[in-house]
Amino acid sequence: MCNAVTERHIVAAVREGATTLRHLRRDLGVTTECGRCARCAHDCLRSALAEHTGTPEASTPVFARPIFPLALEAV
Ligand code: FES
């Protein structure tokens, strides 16, 4: 990940109270530049939280596509 952050750093951050990607950004500096590490950081965070709390990992949420109103003239 960026800024030499590893999964170990994320696990440690979770132990110290981090629960969101925003916390990781604030505490470790991940996703502060291009954002390419966001998915990996999120996956590591989710895994670390599951391990820390002793709960099974929740499945990745599926987001519905936004519905954009489409004017008939645009078709
Ligand atoms: S790789 Fe993390 S912000 Fe770019």
In summary, what is this structure?
The N and C termini lie far apart (43 Å). The protein has 75 residues and is an all-alpha fold.
Main features:
single chain; about 80 residues; mainly alpha; Arc Repressor Mutant, subunit A; extended; binds FE2/S2 (inorganic) cluster
> What name does CATH use for the topology?
Arc Repressor Mutant, subunit A
CATH architecture call? Orthogonal Bundle
The CATH superfamily label reads BFD-like [2Fe-2S]-binding domain
Q: How large is the share of residues in beta strands?
A: under 5%
Helix content: 40-55%
CATH class: Mainly Alpha
List low-confidence stretches.
none
How is this structure best described in words?
This protein is an all-alpha fold. It has one domain (2-73): Arc Repressor Mutant, subunit A. It contains 3 helices and no strands. 17% of the residues are buried. The mean pLDDT is 85. Bound molecules: FE2/S2 (inorganic) cluster. FE2/S2 (inorganic) cluster binds next to loops. It holds the Pfam family Fer2_BFD. Keywords: 2Fe-2S, Electron transport, Iron, Iron-sulfur, Metal-binding, Transport. This is Bacterioferritin-associated ferredoxin.
